Amino acid sequence: MEKYKNKYRIKSARHPNWDYGSNGFYFITICTHNREFFFGEIKNQISQLSEIGKIAENCWDQIPNHFPFVKLHNHIIMPNHVHGIIEIAKINDGRDDGRNDGRNDGRNDGRNVETQNFASLPSTLPPQPPQNPPPQNPPPQNPTTNKFGPQSKNLASIIRGFKIGVTKNAKNIHPYFKWQARYHDHIIRNDKSFDRISNYIANNHLNWEKDKFHE
Questions:
Q1: How far apart are CA 80 and CA 74, in angstroms?
Q2: Of 7, 11, 82, 166, which has the maximum CB count within 10 A?
Q3: Which of 146, 155, 68 shows the shortest CA–CA distance to 112?
Q4: Nearest-CA neighbor of 87 among 116, 112, 107, 59?
Q5: Contacts of 53 (CB under 8 A, 6+ apart)
Q6: Which residues pair with 188 in a beta bridge?
Q7: Rounded CA gap, 199 and 74, in Å?
Q8: In order of start, what are the domains of the chain with their CATH numbers?
C-alpha cells in the first residue's frame, strides 16, 4: 500500500498510462457492499431479479441516454454484482492516431449531456399520492438537482452516474443499500478478448455456484 500524507491508502486499480475518456472497450465489474445479495438470486441457473435488481437493469440500459457517446454490449445483473462491457465511442476522442477516421455514427461527443446520473429515472415502486392540499406557491425546483455538473466524460463518470441512479432508487426499497466503494475495469484490446469476456458474461449465471463472488 502507498502512503499519502502519512496515511496508507489502497493503490488505484486504474491503468496509470491510459486515458479513460478515450475510445475503447471496457469490461466492468461493480459489487454491492460486502457482496450482499441485493439484486436477487440464481435458481436452477435462472436469474431472478429483485426489485432493486430491476432498478439496476433499468439504469444500465439507460446509460446511453445520459452519455450519448456510450455503446453497451453484453451485461448481466448478478445477485451481488454487475458485469458489463461499455464502449466509449466518441466521434473524436482527441487522439490523432487515425482511429476516428471515417466515424460517422450520428453520436455527439457528450457536450449537450445534462443529466449524467439516473436519479430522475422512475423507480419500480407505485406512485405516491399527492399531498392534500398542494401548496399554493410551490418553491422553484433547483435546476441542478440530479445532475453531476461539469464532469470529465470518462469511464469513472459513467460508472458514478450509474451507481448514483441505482442507489437513490434502491434506498426507497432498502434504506441500507450500498455499493462497494471501487469498481474493477479491464481494457479490452482485441476481438479474441472481447469474445471471451462476452461469453463469460452471457454464461455467468450458469456458473454461479463456482463464481468467486458467490459466498
A1: 17
A2: 166
A3: 68
A4: 107
A5: 38, 39, 40, 77, 79
A6: 25
A7: 9
A8: 22-92+114-124+147-209 (3.30.70.1290)
